[in-house]
Design a protein that fits this description.
331 residues; nine-stranded mixed β-sheet; 11 helices
Length: 331
């Protein structure tokens, strides 16, 4: 029986320069629709779970196209609302070798940022739901988005739905008069699982420890429902070559995955979302160590796929965990 998982967040129009062209000389852009939370939903739907995404799209053909993208991926789009406004855009220039990738955002005054929180019936949205996922991007976009996220978190907690949060501190997004410490601690408090690095802990929870285990333990004292804390460690040798591993604290033990050497990276955007989806899926199906290993392997495979979403199967992820069929020509 598939688990019912609800995700909440803005989806944007991604315009990427073809191949490794630069912004200053490209004559065209490749079009993709993506968002951190929706990327999680796509992975989970692709792995056989019942995933639905909550967002607001503009009432035009761009909103319809974004909806079609989610439907193609198997995500339930029945909870999406449409309003007047625009879709946020972000531009991507893929780096290579020692040249870094670049992202330029144009997301001000989007339909999502201007949503009305009262338009969403969370009691109905969470009917039959097992899990709710949000990220720190949503409450950073606008006051109305923060209010919507608060209503969703409160409803999920009240209804006994497990909550995961990718804290994902984005300094440049908090532009509407509130800072993360005004909003985030209360949102994080009822979480079952969070992904957070030391920077996230400091800026969104006021935890200034430089030891990750101590930071996790302090987070637990602030969040009584918290069972898991996780993060990834990335060593960027170049834009094309990174090493990646992950850790998962389960309240007793700090588990660690193997380290993967990733060379010839195709697209690293969405790698963290693939990791989050892998953790959710893994914790629903496996023990803690295997859940962590599955999550890291899912993230590694995402680095081989263009676009935001991680279109890989459970078998492909599991085979990478087991070291089978790595890089082979499969017929």
């Amino acid at each position: 029986m598939p688990h019912r998982i609800i995700t909440l967040g803005e989806i944007m129009l991604r315009l990427s320069t073809p191949g490794y062209e630069r912004f200053i000389n490209t004559r065209s852009y490749d079009v993709i629709y993506g968002g951190a939370e929706a990327n999680v939903a796509i992975s989970l739907a692709n792995w056989g779970e019942s995933a639905a995404h909550v967002t607001v799209f503009p009432t035009n053909d761009i909103g319809k196209a974004a909806t079609n993208t989610l439907q193609f991926a198997g995500v339930d789009t029945s909870l999406i609302q449409f309003n007047e406004g625009r879709m946020g855009i972000y531009f991507v220039e893929n780096g290579a070798m020692q040249r870094s990738s670049k992202i330029i955002y144009d997301r001000f005054d989007s339909a999502f940022s201007n949503l009305n929180p009262d338009d969403f019936n969370w009691e109905k949205i969470f009917e039959g739901a097992d899990w709710f996922h949000w990220t720190g991007i949503t409450p950073a976009v606008s006051q109305s988005a923060a209010d919507l996220c608060k209503a969703a978190v409160n409803a999920a907690s009240r209804l006994g739905v497990k909550i995961s949060a990718d804290i994902n501190y984005r300094r440049n997004l908090w532009q509407y008069g509130k800072g993360p410490m005004d909003i985030m601690p209360e949102l994080i408090k009822p979480s079952h699982l969070i992904i957070a690095g030391l920077t996230d802990f400091e800026n969104c929870m006021g935890i200034t420890d430089t030891d990750y285990l101590q930071a996790c333990e302090k987070a637990k004292t602030m969040c009584p429902s918290l069972k898991y804390v996780s993060t990834t460690h990335r060593d960027s040798i170049s834009a094309s070559a990174n090493d990646l591993n992950g850790v998962l604290w389960n309240g007793e033990t700090m588990l660690e995955s193997k380290t993967y050497e990733m060379t010839h990276i195709v697209d690293r955007i969405g790698g963290g979302d693939a990791y989050m989806a892998g953790l959710i899926y893994g914790l629903l199906h496996f023990d803690d160590q295997n859940a962590l290993d599955f999550a890291v392997a899912a993230s590694v495979l995402k680095h081989s796929i263009p676009g935001d979403a991680n279109f890989v199967s459970v078998d492909e992820v599991s085979q990478l965990v087991e070291g089978k069929n790595v890089g082979k020509l499969l017929r």
